[in-house]
């Protein structure tokens, strides 16, 4: 049985061209970029060239890019780095109830350290209210962290409007763009973004590598201590092969940006149309207008997500609840709780399908047919 992978929002397969670059760099470039000899300088040039590609992809300067081990570290660096660098200016932080746990858990830790955090609610479409944000801003607010697009339901937040609101406020504006990067056109300058997190493995690059954009003049307290790598911002020897492969994945995404988004959205629509044709009952969770092209979260009445995911797995379909697995059970999604409340059926019957590299129309049609046999 050939498996059908519909969980690209969790992680994406590496593109063949990226694998080729990755393995070639592991063989050919083994020097430490901090070494001053020729072998080290060769590695340094590879990192510098890759950093330029990463920076240009969001309209930034290469000196504003700090390489990290992925989205979690980038989020942690933005949140903790801001908090501890600016704690004498204020201890109030604003975020949302639907952030990735890399932000939420960081904020929860800061609350234990004496910071005050406001968690903005969302409506049933998964969107925050600009008025709620405006009313929550205070003189002692030092950070506003709102994800660009949600990883569970794919809803895109009004980032440009948020940036416009905050451009004259001293609070730093951070956005977790891990799920949005590669699917949306991002310009940190016109959006007035101060800090932005990205991860490679969501765009067909290697795992364990990402970056934090840090606008010039934005001060953060480092969370790693050691050497003086990354302009003294992030200690640790750079993973040169992964960085170069990451840059290659970015180039491939940029080259196929428009066509890829159209293709993945078409696969989504074909999938939905086939479910409707087969009379599978469902509702789409989250906004259907302000949403990523490749992410689809649906609620199927009279199903249990744990059982349903096992049945999908046995049928050869990889999907996700979008929720954290703990001790063999699936906790209710904090995103869906924020959208619908704590006692709604969507918490127990919602599944995320996400489309990407190597998916075909034949695959999504087959997946829909298998789902109908499980549900009906």
From TrEMBL:
EC number per UniProt: 2.8.1.7
UniProt keyword Transferase present: yes
SUPFAM superfamilies, per database record: PLP-dependent transferases
Ranges in coiled-coil conformation: none
UniProt catalytic activity: (sulfur carrier)-H + L-cysteine = (sulfur carrier)-SH + L-alanine
Residue ranges annotated for the Aminotransferase class V domain, each copy included: 4-364
Cofactor: pyridoxal 5'-phosphate
Name of the protein in question: cysteine desulfurase
UniProt keyword list: Iron, Iron-sulfur, Metal-binding, Pyridoxal phosphate, Transferase
TM regions (residue ranges): none
Single GO MF annotation: metal ion binding
Family: Belongs to the class-V pyridoxal-phosphate-dependent aminotransferase family. NifS/IscS subfamily.
Highest taxon of the lineage: Bacteria
Enzyme kind, highest EC tier: transferase
One Pfam family cited in the UniProt record for this chain: Aminotran_5
InterPro entries, per the entry: Aminotrans_V_dom, Aminotrans_V_PyrdxlP_BS, Cysteine_dSase, PyrdxlP-dep_Trfase, PyrdxlP-dep_Trfase_major, PyrdxlP-dep_Trfase_small
């Amino acid at each position: 049985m050939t498996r059908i992978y519909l969980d690209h929002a969790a992680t994406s397969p590496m593109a063949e061209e990226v694998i080729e670059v990755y393995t070639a760099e592991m063989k050919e470039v083994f020097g430490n970029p901090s070494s001053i000899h020729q072998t080290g300088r060769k590695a340094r040039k590879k990192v510098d060239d890759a950093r330029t590609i990463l920076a240009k992809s969001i309209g930034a300067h290469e000196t504003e890019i700090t390489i990290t081990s992925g989205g979690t570290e980038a989020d942690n660096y933005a949140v903790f780095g801001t908090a501890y660098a600016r704690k004498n200016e204020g201890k109030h932080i604003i975020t949302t109830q639907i952030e990735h746990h890399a932000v939420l858990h960081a904020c929860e830790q800061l609350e234990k350290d004496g910071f005050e955090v406001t968690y903005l609610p969302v409506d049933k479409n998964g969107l925050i209210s600009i008025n709620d944000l405006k009313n929550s801003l205070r003189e002692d607010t030092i950070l506003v962290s709102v994800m660009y697009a949600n990883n569970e339901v794919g809803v895109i937040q009004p980032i440009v409007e948020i940036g416009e609101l905050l451009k004259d406020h001293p609070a730093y504006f951070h956005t977790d763009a891990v799920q949005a990067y590669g699917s949306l056109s991002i310009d940190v300058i016109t959006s007035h973004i101060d800090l932005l997190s990205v991860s490679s493995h969501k765009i067909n690059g290697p795992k364990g590598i990402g970056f934090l954009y840090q606008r010039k003049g934005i001060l953060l307290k480092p969370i790693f201590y050691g050497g003086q790598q990354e302009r003294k911002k992030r200690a640790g020897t750079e993973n040169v092969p992964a960085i170069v492969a990451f840059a290659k994945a970015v180039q491939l995404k940029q080259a196929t940006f428009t066509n890829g988004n159209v293709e993945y959205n078409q696969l989504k629509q074909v999938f939905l149309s086939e479910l409707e044709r087969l009379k599978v009952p469902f509702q789409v969770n989250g906004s259907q207008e302000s949403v990523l092209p490749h992410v689809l979260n649906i609620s199927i009445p009279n199903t249990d997500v744990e059982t349903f995911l096992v049945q999908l797995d046995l049928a050869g379909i990889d999907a996700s609840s979008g929720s954290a697995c703990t001790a063999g059970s699936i906790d209710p999604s904090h995103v869906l709780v924020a959208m619908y409340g704590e006692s709604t059926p969507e918490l127990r019957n919602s599944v995320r399908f996400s489309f990407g590299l190597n998916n075909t129309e034949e695959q999504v049609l087959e997946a829909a047919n298998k789902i109908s046999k499980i549900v009906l």
